Amino acid sequence: MYKLTNNAEVVIRVDDGAIVPRGHRFWDDYEAWLLSGGTPMPADTMSLESTERAWRDAEILRVKWLGERHQDEILLKGKTTLFDSEFTELLTYLQALRNWPQSTGFPVRDNRPLAPVWVSKYGV
Length: 124
Hints:
Layout (H helix, E strand, L loop, with lengths): L1 E3 L5 E4 L4 E4 L5 H9 L12 H28 L8 H16 L25
Antiparallel strand pairs: 1-2, 2-3
Protein backbone atom coordinates (compact mmCIF):
# COMPACT_ATOMS: atom_id res chain seq x y z
CA MET A 1 0.00 0.00 0.00
CA TYR A 2 1.14 3.54 -0.75
CA LYS A 3 0.21 6.99 0.48
CA LEU A 4 0.23 10.16 -1.58
CA THR A 5 2.07 13.27 -0.44
CA ASN A 6 1.53 16.94 -1.24
CA ASN A 7 4.23 16.50 -3.90
CA ALA A 8 3.03 14.55 -6.94
CA GLU A 9 6.61 13.33 -7.48
CA VAL A 10 6.80 11.55 -4.11
CA VAL A 11 4.79 8.77 -2.42
CA ILE A 12 5.21 6.94 0.86
CA ARG A 13 5.33 3.16 1.00
CA VAL A 14 3.07 2.47 3.99
CA ASP A 15 4.54 -0.93 4.95
CA ASP A 16 7.87 0.55 6.04
CA GLY A 17 7.40 4.33 5.72
CA ALA A 18 9.88 4.55 2.85
CA ILE A 19 9.74 7.82 0.94
CA VAL A 20 9.72 7.01 -2.77
CA PRO A 21 10.47 9.84 -5.20
CA ARG A 22 9.84 9.50 -8.93
CA GLY A 23 12.91 7.91 -10.48
CA HIS A 24 13.73 5.83 -7.39
CA ARG A 25 13.97 2.09 -7.98
CA PHE A 26 10.77 1.56 -5.93
CA TRP A 27 8.78 3.97 -8.14
CA ASP A 28 8.34 1.18 -10.71
CA ASP A 29 6.83 -1.02 -7.97
CA TYR A 30 4.43 1.82 -7.13
CA GLU A 31 3.35 2.20 -10.75
CA ALA A 32 2.87 -1.58 -11.12
CA TRP A 33 0.78 -1.54 -7.94
CA LEU A 34 -1.38 1.25 -9.40
CA LEU A 35 -1.83 -0.70 -12.67
CA SER A 36 -2.94 -3.76 -10.72
CA GLY A 37 -5.77 -1.70 -9.22
CA GLY A 38 -4.12 -0.30 -6.12
CA THR A 39 -5.51 2.94 -4.75
CA PRO A 40 -3.14 5.04 -2.67
CA MET A 41 -4.18 6.58 0.62
CA PRO A 42 -4.75 10.35 0.32
CA ALA A 43 -2.08 12.81 1.40
CA ASP A 44 -2.28 14.30 4.84
CA THR A 45 -3.63 17.80 4.59
CA MET A 46 -3.03 20.64 6.93
CA SER A 47 -5.95 22.89 7.61
CA LEU A 48 -5.90 26.21 5.82
CA GLU A 49 -5.44 27.90 9.19
CA SER A 50 -2.41 25.74 10.03
CA THR A 51 -0.89 26.34 6.61
CA GLU A 52 -1.26 30.10 6.89
CA ARG A 53 0.08 30.16 10.45
CA ALA A 54 3.10 28.19 9.25
CA TRP A 55 3.62 30.73 6.45
CA ARG A 56 3.29 33.59 8.94
CA ASP A 57 5.82 32.02 11.32
CA ALA A 58 8.29 31.46 8.48
CA GLU A 59 7.79 35.01 7.23
CA ILE A 60 8.55 36.45 10.66
CA LEU A 61 11.77 34.43 10.79
CA ARG A 62 12.63 35.50 7.24
CA VAL A 63 12.59 39.25 7.97
CA LYS A 64 13.13 39.81 11.68
CA TRP A 65 16.91 39.68 11.37
CA LEU A 66 16.76 43.01 9.53
CA GLY A 67 15.28 44.68 12.60
CA GLU A 68 17.67 42.92 14.93
CA ARG A 69 20.65 44.07 12.85
CA HIS A 70 19.31 47.63 12.83
CA GLN A 71 19.00 47.62 16.62
CA ASP A 72 22.50 46.17 16.99
CA GLU A 73 23.92 48.85 14.71
CA ILE A 74 22.25 51.56 16.83
CA LEU A 75 23.62 50.04 20.06
CA LEU A 76 27.09 49.94 18.53
CA LYS A 77 26.66 53.60 17.53
CA GLY A 78 27.49 52.70 13.95
CA LYS A 79 25.96 53.49 10.61
CA THR A 80 22.61 51.73 10.20
CA THR A 81 21.73 49.68 7.17
CA LEU A 82 18.07 50.64 7.34
CA PHE A 83 16.67 54.14 7.26
CA ASP A 84 14.53 54.95 10.29
CA SER A 85 11.45 54.96 8.04
CA GLU A 86 12.31 51.44 6.81
CA PHE A 87 12.76 50.22 10.37
CA THR A 88 9.32 51.61 11.25
CA GLU A 89 7.82 49.90 8.19
CA LEU A 90 9.49 46.64 9.19
CA LEU A 91 8.14 46.82 12.73
CA THR A 92 4.67 47.59 11.38
CA TYR A 93 4.89 44.59 9.04
CA LEU A 94 6.06 42.27 11.85
CA GLN A 95 3.17 43.43 14.01
CA ALA A 96 0.71 42.86 11.15
CA LEU A 97 2.08 39.32 10.79
CA ARG A 98 1.65 38.65 14.51
CA ASN A 99 -1.90 40.02 14.46
CA TRP A 100 -2.96 38.37 11.22
CA PRO A 101 -4.49 35.18 12.69
CA GLN A 102 -6.89 37.35 14.70
CA SER A 103 -7.85 39.56 11.74
CA THR A 104 -11.10 39.20 9.81
CA GLY A 105 -9.20 38.33 6.59
CA PHE A 106 -7.49 35.28 8.08
CA PRO A 107 -6.79 32.64 6.67
CA VAL A 108 -7.39 33.81 3.09
CA ARG A 109 -4.04 33.96 1.30
CA ASP A 110 -4.97 37.14 -0.59
CA ASN A 111 -5.33 38.89 2.76
CA ARG A 112 -1.80 38.17 3.96
CA PRO A 113 0.11 41.21 5.19
CA LEU A 114 2.38 42.54 2.46
CA ALA A 115 6.09 42.93 3.09
CA PRO A 116 7.57 46.34 2.36
CA VAL A 117 8.86 46.37 -1.22
CA TRP A 118 12.39 47.36 -0.15
CA VAL A 119 12.84 44.14 1.90
CA SER A 120 13.78 42.22 -1.24
CA LYS A 121 16.88 44.35 -1.81
CA TYR A 122 18.41 42.67 1.25
CA GLY A 123 18.18 39.22 -0.34
CA VAL A 124 15.23 38.26 1.79
